[in-house]
Design a protein that fits this description.
The chain is mainly α and 217 residues long.
Amino acid sequence: MRRYAAEFIGTFMLVFLGTGAVVVAKADTLTIGLAFGLTVTVMAYAFGGVSGGHFNPAVSIAMMINKRLEAKDGVFYIVAQFLGAIVASGLLSVLINALDLSRTGFGQTDFPKIGAGVAFLVEVIVTFSFILVILMTTSDRFGNSQMAPLAIGITLSLLIIVALNLTGGSLNPARSFGPAIFAGGSALAHYWVYLAAPIVGAVLAAFTGRLLGSEER
């Protein structure tokens, strides 16, 4: 239960602080990228020793494929991550009401400027890149446990900065789901991209990591 609680809290903080930077702080692209990246770094240092610090169903799927996480635990990790994202967006809705902000703005991910096919490709590429960095920096043979959270957080920041104006830079099915169910509209209608594309990216990263020796000891 400690591991599931850690995944819930870490994902809650990721969605609350990341989307809060968008909605409440009205931050620019750099600040939004840093908000997500720094939150992942801090949460990984705080809870990495408890659960591994996934905070993302795509990461958990890659870890299950590469047998770093048992399937049973992986299912509960994913449930905890989705619940954390939903609760974070629910709390954000309270702040939105308190500040009398737009009821449609929850920091949701969407792709109004590009087509679904391009959006899918973008999310596959950025998720693949993110998870491959995670697998390599946490590898027994090639990784560095002290520096891994920092490298992972910086990578997430950079990828979000690049993808923000294309797809919102999700890389995480839970991160997109929480805001989408409160915002509704096209964010919810397009959620399939933010569910399927990160999973494809995770699978590709898991097998690429193996080829590069991420699972060697």
